[in-house]
Amino acid sequence: MSKNIRFLLIFILGFCTYYFFDLYCFKTIQSFSQRLFHSKALAHVIAYSITLIPLITTLKIVLPEKKIADLLSVNKLIVKGFTIAFLGTFVMAVGYSLHFSIITKIDIESLFINTISSAFFEEIIFRAFLIGVLYRFTRLGFLSSLLLGSLLFAQVHLYQSQNTTELIEIFSITFLGSIFFAWIYFETDYNLWTAICTHFFMNFYWEIFNVSANVSGNLYGNIYKLSSLLLIIGIIIYYKKRNNIPFQVTLKSLFIKTSELQS
């Protein structure tokens, strides 16, 4: 068995183990933790942290010489990621303040779960592990690396509605969002904090303003969201071109890379 096939088999097995562990144990762990600590926010973090064990184990098996912090890309500068995300999503803050009212009654624990906790763990699972490891340590290109992860990322958001039209909108928006988050993660020198902070700010503004009941949104909600995405893309492109930094994602790396890209 070749090294690459062994890598992919263990990787897939590890993710499948995580997936079913999360599917059947997450809510149980969360409920137990909430009864124990009387905090749904802490329970959410604990449940996510425990269900991450199969992914951490998988990384140690397939890439034992690498540190987990490096593999999950959380060893980069938080300030850089925060700054790009804050500047880019400021459009949402301004736009939403003009068109939507601030929610008067905010559940702090729910806000924490839907912004900080969800943004952090979803980027760890989908962008850093499921998409990032494949792109960084195999010959798979950008599009081929992100397909499965983006499909799953879109699928886990379908709980937000029962309406067929809204489900299609939710799936499409979150699928495209996953592609965007993967791109900014790769193009900021694999700094996952850029994706985490962008994810956080987008969720935060969506939560504190009375925009929409789910991610499908509405005209103004989506216009300002799209404007923020384009601004962040523009900031990254401008910075890289000004400093003569090569782009990770090019036409030559869309499907299959000519050589493995190590970082």
UniProtKB/TrEMBL annotation:
<keyword id="KW-0645">Protease</keyword>
<dbReference type="GO" id="GO:0008237">
    <property type="term" value="F:metallopeptidase activity"/>
</dbReference>
<feature type="transmembrane region" description="Helical">
    <location>
        <begin position="167"/>
        <end position="186"/>
    </location>
</feature>
<feature type="transmembrane region" description="Helical">
    <location>
        <begin position="77"/>
        <end position="99"/>
    </location>
</feature>
<dbReference type="InterPro" id="IPR003675">
    <property type="entry name" value="Rce1/LyrA-like_dom"/>
</dbReference>
<keyword id="KW-0482">Metalloprotease</keyword>
<protein>
    <submittedName>
        <fullName>CPBP family intramembrane metalloprotease</fullName>
    </submittedName>
</protein>
<keyword id="KW-0472">Membrane</keyword>
<feature type="transmembrane region" description="Helical">
    <location>
        <begin position="141"/>
        <end position="160"/>
    </location>
</feature>
<keyword id="KW-0378">Hydrolase</keyword>
<feature type="domain" description="CAAX prenyl protease 2/Lysostaphin resistance protein A-like">
    <location>
        <begin position="111"/>
        <end position="204"/>
    </location>
</feature>
<keyword id="KW-1133">Transmembrane helix</keyword>
<dbReference type="GO" id="GO:0080120">
    <property type="term" value="P:CAAX-box protein maturation"/>
</dbReference>
<feature type="transmembrane region" description="Helical">
    <location>
        <begin position="6"/>
        <end position="25"/>
    </location>
</feature>
<keyword id="KW-0812">Transmembrane</keyword>
<feature type="transmembrane region" description="Helical">
    <location>
        <begin position="219"/>
        <end position="239"/>
    </location>
</feature>
<feature type="transmembrane region" description="Helical">
    <location>
        <begin position="37"/>
        <end position="57"/>
    </location>
</feature>
<dbReference type="Pfam" id="PF02517">
    <property type="entry name" value="Rce1-like"/>
</dbReference>
<dbReference type="GO" id="GO:0004175">
    <property type="term" value="F:endopeptidase activity"/>
</dbReference>
<feature type="transmembrane region" description="Helical">
    <location>
        <begin position="111"/>
        <end position="135"/>
    </location>
</feature>
